[in-house]
Design goal:
Elements (H helix, E strand, L loop, with lengths): L2 E5 L2 E4 L4 E8 L8 E6 L6 E6 L6 E3 L7 E6 L4 E6 L8 E7 L16 E2 L3 E6 L1
Parallel strand pairs: 2-11
Antiparallel strand pairs: 1-3, 3-8, 4-5, 4-9, 5-6, 7-8, 9-10, 9-11
Length: 126
């Protein structure tokens, strides 16, 4: 059974930084793509960032480019999302997800991901 757990959320002022962590148990993250998504109140869950199974390709939604950085540490079986210059519009529950099969592409679509964490709340005050 694959379990995915996020941590690192919290309350931060606008302009501040946070680093989210996504850890897997029951299976290694190695050889699997990982995506970060977020859902704000009253809105649909949206893609934020993704990293390829090899770690050499990263993807970001336009609104976070230049501010967020996704990375992976396979030795620690963890994927990180470093968020800088946070804005109130970044307030949401952030979830990470991974896919079922090895070496799959990094998708922007939430329906392509099979294993999800419960999420961690990020609140940015103005």
């Amino acid at each position: 059974q694959v379990q995915v757990v996020e941590s690192g959320g919290g309350l931060v002022q606008a302009g501040g930084s946070l680093r989210l962590s996504c850890a897997a148990s029951g299976r290694t993250f190695r050889s699997y793509p990982v995506g970060w998504f977020r859902q704000a109140p009253g809105k649909e869950r949206e893609f934020v960032a993704g990293i390829s199974w090899s770690g050499d390709r990263t993807y970001y939604t336009d609104s976070v480019k230049g501010r967020f950085t996704i990375s992976r540490n396979n030795a620690e079986n963890t994927v990180y999302l470093h968020m800088d210059s946070l804005k109130p519009d970044d307030t949401a529950v952030y979830c990470c997800a991974t896919r079922r099969r090895m070496y799959e592409s990094t998708s922007f679509r939430r329906e392509d991901y099979d294993y999800w964490g419960q999420g961690t709340q990020v609140t940015v005050s103005s």
